[in-house]
Automatic annotation (TrEMBL):
InterPro entries: Alkaline_phosphatase_core_sf, LtaS-like, OpgB/LTA_synthase_biosynth, Sulfatase_N. It is found in: Cell membrane. Belongs to the LTA synthase family. It comes from Planococcus liqunii. SUPFAM superfamilies: Alkaline phosphatase-like. It is an enzyme of class 2 (transferase). Pathway: Cell wall biogenesis; lipoteichoic acid biosynthesis. It is a multi-pass membrane protein. It comes from the Bacteria. The chain crosses the membrane at residues 32-54, 61-81, 101-128, 140-159. This is LTA synthase family protein. Its EC number is 2.7.8.-. Keywords: Cell membrane, Membrane, Transferase, Transmembrane, Transmembrane helix. Residues 228-519 form the Sulfatase N-terminal domain.
Amino acid sequence: MNKSKAVPYLLIFFLLLLKVSAFRILIFDTKSVWHIAFVEFPVWALLLALVLLIFKKRIWLAAWIYSFLVSGIFFAVTLYSRYYTTIPSYYDLQQATQSSTVGTTILLLIHPTDFLFFLDVMLLAIIARKWKEPPRAPKLKYAALGLAIVSAVTTVYAIQQPIIDVSYFAKENGYAQSQLVQMYQQANETAHASSTSLSAKELEALKGNEYVPVNNHDTFGLAKGRHLFMIQVESMQNFVVGRSLNGQEITPNINALLQESAYFSNVFQQIGAGTTSDAEWITNTGLYTEGMVPIVNKLNGSQVPSLAQTLKGHGYGSATYHADDIEFWNRDVLYPVLGFDEIFSNEQIPEIKQVGYGPADEVLMDFALDELPRQLDAYERIYSNIVMMTSHTPFVLPEDMQYLNLPMEYEGTHVGHYLQSIRYADEQVGTFIKELKEQGLFDESLIVIFGDHSGIHGSPLSYEDDVLLKDFLGHSYSMKERYTIPLLFTGGGLFDAVEMDRLGGQVDIMPTALALLGIEHEKPLMGHNLFQYEKNLLGMRYYLPGGSFIQSEQLYKAPGAKLPDMLLDIKTMEKRKKNSETKKHTRDVQKVLEYGDALLKPYIQD
């Protein structure tokens, strides 16, 4: 093929090289020509070559279709990573119908420059109209063979590397290769199977504690015989509790409730890609999630030794309330495997006063309260799991649901919307508690109130929002503010303004509640009774790079797609130098996570 005939093909591949380079620079902040030319580009170029060979004659159309698809992938990855600060897998991109969080904030995530990924698509469309169809390229198959060899070498090398963190793995081994390796590992169950086994004593030793049998805990049975209410508040972070804006409390009802509660102010979220549904899983099983894959999408239908299942053996009837479509995040699978006796979704909860994803929380709470008299007649004791969701991103509420009189600088901002939505959620919690007290149930119940995950994070936060947060907090917004959630245990006569700042995670909620109720769980739990143990060691996947850990004295953020690793003092969030303890905790948390994977194995699909 002479040089003039090769020009169209060189142009097509050159445009792809520019796009891949832009992707690497934007997502991974890469400066390495080697990674672009010999790791990332060959796989995308090979796929392009194969497409051109298959189409044979309609080269411009083939190139345009392929370029459009790749642009769409790069565009989606950019928005996803901008919001979640992690790199999505092929599995995440398949979940577009489930990713409501990104869907609703899409306009906040997009930067005008993101559309430059489609610049070559437009150029190819123009060129195709003005340039005649190029002839077939006999030597293209040789180029494809060379690309295939390079791609095979880099992919085989990548397969040999452990995926501790997907984002960092993709940075080092190529985004395309990272997807191929994940597909390979999913197809090969032995690649991700874990046989790690730890006794309760060994698990507590890794956390830095001496194991004590649960029935010997000081708080064991403190709430024995009581009803249980678990209230999961959408997007509620701990930094709003006790704070005011222009003399207005953000959470006045929760603040008042603290006077008769045990409040844990240093509890970290541990969700993965499943966000709210992951929080439901963790708090109802005491087990970790997989991280990169929403646990609800991998359940095999087997009954899980859950909170509801254990309580059932002690005379409890259970009900769960979530005013959304039961099939959203596969809750039609999740709730049965958790063993709830009664399941209420938007099919039963009145679809009135719609806000965001369904009926407002006040409708949800009223419905749950209306069910109580019947349930109290039907069951010896009741367990109600209530999942609030009105305070879901993008946090925009109708004027009649806004309780705060925001200062002018907060009006219309992401932070302002967030504070308004949390204030609304707090009002509904307060109304629910007031009703329990009026019905005489507060003194007969253990009520657990907690946030599911952070709401303030990612690209929706503008420079203006950062300034407002710093003014609101009195210091810069840190990972601690982002990842800590409030956790309250309350009920008539149980506690008197107890606040504890010992480290906790969402895996600790179920074992702490069961200990208070005086009930032992027969199966292993990843968490422990927060009233009993002072030390902790937590793993978090997805929102922190793999290899990260949260420990009672320090938080270690492993290297990710763009940023280097970082060790922080857990109290001050100031940087510290890595030491021998850092390496030990990294190894120990890996053991914890592997043990968590082993406990999950019977309940998820291979």
